[in-house]
Amino acid sequence: MQWAVNLFDMWRKQRNAKVIRSSCSQKQLISGELLFLADEDLQVALSCFVVEVHKLDGSSYPPKTIRQLVLMIQMYL
Questions:
Q1: Separation CA 23–CA 36 (nearest Å)
Q2: What integer pLDDT is reported at residue 43 of this predicted model?
Q3: By Cβ atoms counted within 10 A, which residue in 39, 48, 65, 67 is the most buried?
Q4: Cα-flanking dihedrals φ and ψ of residue 24, to 5°?
Q5: Burial of 3 (0-12, 13-18, 19+ CB in 10 A)
Q6: Cα atoms in the 13 Å half-sphere on the side-chain side of 24
Q7: What's the pLDDT tens digit per position in 8-66?
């Protein structure tokens, strides 16, 4: 379970850094840790996470792994 939470946190930090660098107004920052996100922010964050998360080598996770990530995050919450 901690792997999924750590992966989410790493993704969040990298995504926020990209948003700040690009000053893209269409993407919002995901501020705060997973447990402390408001419901609306959590919905946005999780949907973006599922679409954007990749392995360290840049390749995509298989659908089964994405499902496991979501389930582990749900258990954590």
A1: 25
A2: 92
A3: 48
A4: -80, 120
A5: exposed
A6: 11
A7: 999 999 988 888 888 665 677 888 888 999 999 899 899 999 999 999 899 999 999 99
In angstroms, the CA 20 to CA 34 distance is: 20
Helix (H, G, I), strand (E, B) or coil at 34: helix
What pLDDT does 24 receive? 61
The token pair at 6 is 């750590």
DSSP alpha helices (H): ranges in the chain?
2-22, 39-52, 63-76
- How many CB atoms sit inside 10 A of residue 45's CB? 22
Short-list 30, 32, 65, CA closest to 47: 30
